UniProtKB/TrEMBL annotation, chains A, B:
This is Nucleoside hydrolase. PANTHER family: INOSINE-URIDINE PREFERRING NUCLEOSIDE HYDROLASE, URIDINE NUCLEOSIDASE. GO terms for molecular function: purine nucleosidase activity. It comes from Croceicoccus mobilis. Keywords: Glycosidase, Hydrolase, Signal.
Length: 369, 369
C-alpha cells in the first residue's frame, strides 16, 4: 500500500485505539527470489510491517530478483522499504555440478535460474535463460528505485541486531542469505523472533485434478523428499536447519498441492486491490501451487493450518542421489547433529488462504484511499 | 615493528630514494587462526605492508585467535593495524560431525579447536580445550587493543574494493572467511591481487630424522591428501579453490617436512629482534613444521621455492573417508567444475627460509630504533 497513506491510517487507528497497538505490528523481512503474491500479501496487509526485502538466486538470478523487488515496491508505492541484494551463487552447489548430477541420477523437474527447457511438454511457460551477471531489463522497464548498498546477509544481521527478538523472517527461496548471515554472526539466528520458510518436502500427494496439478505432481511423485529451494542450495538449507532460531516454522511443498493459483482467485484479488496492484496481478501466470503464499498467510494467521507436526529437520548435503533431500525425524529419533525442532505445516485450509489473500489486497487498497 | 618509527624510516628512505618506492610495498592481509612467526615475518619485514589481520577458527576458536592477534600487535607495537574477527564455525562441518566421522573412518591426528587429547603420546603439548564462546584470558593478560567492529569477511571485501588488484591475502587457517567473502560478493576474488594460502597436501614425505618429525609424519603417512586447514572446513576450501583469483598460490604441507622450528632458529631470531619480539618468540614451542612461515616467506620472496607445479586443485566435500582431502589434476585432466589453476609449492630451500625469518626480525628491529 502507499506508505504515507498507511501511516495516516495507522495514526488514525492510534487515536481510535491505543498507540501501542499500532506500533506492535510484527516486523517482517522477506527473503526471496523475486516479487510475487507472497510479497503483496505481506506488504498490503494491515497486520504486519514489512521492514525490508532481500533477494537471492533461485528461480532467477539475484540481480533479476532484486530488479523485480524494486519494481514491486514501485507498484505498491512502498519506496521506503529497503531492498538488499543477496547471494548470486549457492554456497557449494553450482550449475555445472547440477549438470553432472543429472547425468548420474536423473533429470530435475525444475532448476530455477539454471533451467533451459522443460524435460517434457508443460503448460507452464518456459522462463528465459540468463547468465548470473547478464544485465536486467524487465518488461515495461526497470524501477527508478535503487537497491540498498548493503549485502543482504549484512542487512539481515544489522536489522536483527537493531531489533533483537522482534523480526520475523519469511524466506521463500534458497536459504543462502540466512546461512551466510549465521556463519558471519553466530548469534544471528538466536536474535530473530521467528523464521518461517518455504522449503523441503515430506510426502506430498496430488489433491487437485487438473492439468497443472498433474504436471506439478512430477516434482514429487518419484521424489517426495525433494524440493527446489533446498535442492538449489542444500548446504545452506542444512546450516539454517541447524541454527538456533527461537521459533522455526517449515512450510514444505505438502500443503501447496491443495492450493492452486486460479484465474478466479486473481480476479477476486484484482477487484479489491489498488488499480496498480490489480494490473500487476492480472498479468500473473496461473496454475502454480501457492507454495510461498502459504508461508505469507501463515505469518498473518497461523490458524490457516489444519494439520501440523513438530519434527527435527535437516537436509542431505551428500552429493549423491539424495542431494538436497529433506531429512526429518520424530523427537527421540534425530541424530543430534545440531538439527532443530521445526513446526511443520502439513496441510492448510485452502479456502481460508484465498480469503486471506483477497483480504490483504483489500486492506492495501483501503489504506491507500 | 613500531609503526611510527617505521613511518619515520620509510620517510627517510623516501628522501634517499623515491617516494614512490616506499609507497609501492605490497599490501598484505593475513587471515589466520592466531598470531605466530608467520605474522611477525610479514609485520616486521620492510618489504610488505600489512594492512589488516583477520581471525578464524581452526587451531583455536576465532575469539581466541582474535585475542592473540591483538596481543601480537601490542608486542610489535603496530596498534594501527586493524584486527577483524572472522567465522566462529566452519560452513558445514561441525565438531559433532567430526566425532561421527572419526567413529566411521578413523581418528584424526589433529583437530584444532576440537582437540581434547592426542590419540597417542606426543612430545608436543596438548592445547587446552575451550568452547566456542568461552571467555578468553591469555597468559599475561589480554591486550588493551580492541578488535574492529567489522566482521572479517566484510573487512576483506571493503579493503579489496578500496584497493582493487592491490591486496595480497595470506591465508594460513581454514578458508571460511574467504569463502564467505566470495559468496557475499561474487567479484571479491577477482579484485584481489593474489591469494597465497597454506592448505592441502599432495604427497609429503618425511625429510628430517627426529622425534618431532617422526610424530608429525603421522599426519600424512596414511593420509597424504589430508591437511588440517582443509579438513576443518572442506566446503570453504572448495569454494575458494573455485573462485577466480587473478593469481593463486597453494602451499601444501609437502614443503614443510624439511623445515622445522628449532631452538637454534628461535635463538637466531631473538638475537636480532626487538626485545619485546625476542621475548615473545623465545617462549614458543619448537618441533613444528613451519607450514605458515613458508607461506609468509613465499610472499616476501618467491625464489624460496625449489620445486613447484601448476595444477588444478579442489577439495573433497563428500562426507566419506576422503572428506576434506586435496584433489589435484594436471592440466587437461581437471573435471571443469570451476576449479582454478594454482601454483603449488612442492619444495623450498629451508636454509633460505631460516635466513629470511632472521632477516625479517632484524628489519623490524632496525626500523624500531
Amino acid at each position: 500500500m502507499r506508505s504515507w497513506r498507511r501511516l495516516l491510517a495507522v495514526l488514525a487507528l492510534a487515536f481510535m485505539a491505543t498507540g501501542a497497538q499500532a506500533q506492535e505490528r510484527p516486523k517482517i523481512i522477506i527473503d526471496d527470489e523475486g516479487f510475487a503474491l507472497m510479497h503483496l500479501m505481506l506488504i498490503e496487509s494491515d497486520k504486519v510491517d514489512v521492514v525490508g526485502l532481500t533477494s537471492v538466486s533461485g528461480n532467477v538470478w539475484a540481480n533479476r530478483a532484486t530488479a523485480m523487488q524494486l519494481k514491486g515496491l514501485e507498484i505498491t508505492q512502498d519506496e521506503e522499504i529497503p531492498v538488499a541484494e543477496g547471494a548470486t551463487f549457492p554456497l557449494v552447489n553450482t550449475e555445472a555440478m547440477t549438470d553432472r548430477w543429472e547425468a548420474l541420477y536423473g533429470k530435475l523437474t525444475w532448476k530455477g535460474a539454471w533451467m533451459k527447457e522443460w524435460v517434457e511438454p508443460t503448460v507452464q511457460s518456459t522462463p528465459a535463460y540468463y547468465g548470473p551477471h547478464d544485465p536486467v531489463e524487465l518488461p515495461g522497464g526497470n524501477a527508478k528505485l535503487k537497491k540498498s548498498d548493503e549485502i543482504a546477509a549484512n542487512f539481515l544481521i544489522r536489522m536483527v541486531r537493531e531489533n533483537p527478538h522482534q523480526i520475523t523472517i519469511v524466506a521463500c527461496g534458497p536459504l543462502t542469505n540466512l546461512a551466510l548471515a549465521q556463519r558471519l554472526d553466530p548469534e544471528f539466528a538466536s536474535l530473530v523472533k521467528e523464521l518461517v520458510y518455504m522449503g523441503g518436502s515430506l510426502n506430498p500427494r496430488q489433491v487437485l485434478d487438473n492439468v497443472s496439478a498433474d504436471e506439478f505432481a512430477r516434482e514429487f511423485v518419484n521424489s517426495p523428499r525433494r524440493e527446489f529451494n533446498a535442492r538449489f542450495d542444500p548446504e545452506a538449507a542444512s546450516i539454517v536447519s541447524r541454527a538456533p532460531w527461537p521459533k522455526l516454522v517449515m512450510i514444505p511443498s505438502d500443503p501447496s498441492t491443495g492450493a492452486q493459483l486460479t484465474p478466479e482467485l486473481i480476479a477476486r484479488m484484482a477487484k479489491v486491490a489498488t488499480p496498480e496492484v490489480a494490473e500487476f496481478i492480472s498479468g500473473m501466470e496461473t496454475g502454480f501451487p501457492m507454495w510461498d503464499e502459504i508461508a505469507a498467510a501463515y505469518v498473518l494467521d497461523p490458524s490457516l493450518e489444519t494439520e501440523g507436526d513438530d519434527l527435527y529437520v535437516d537436509y542431505n548435503t551428500q552429493f549423491g542421489p539424495g542431494y538436497g533431500d529433506t531429512l526429518s525425524w520424530r523427537e527421540h529419533y534425530q541424530p543430534g547433529l545440531g538439527e532443530q525442532k521445526a513446526h511443520v505445516v502439513r496441510a492448510i485450509d485452502a479456502q481460508k488462504l484465498e480469503a486471506m489473500m483477497v483480504e490483504a489486497m483489500a486492506e492495501g487498497n483501503t489504506a491507500a484511499r
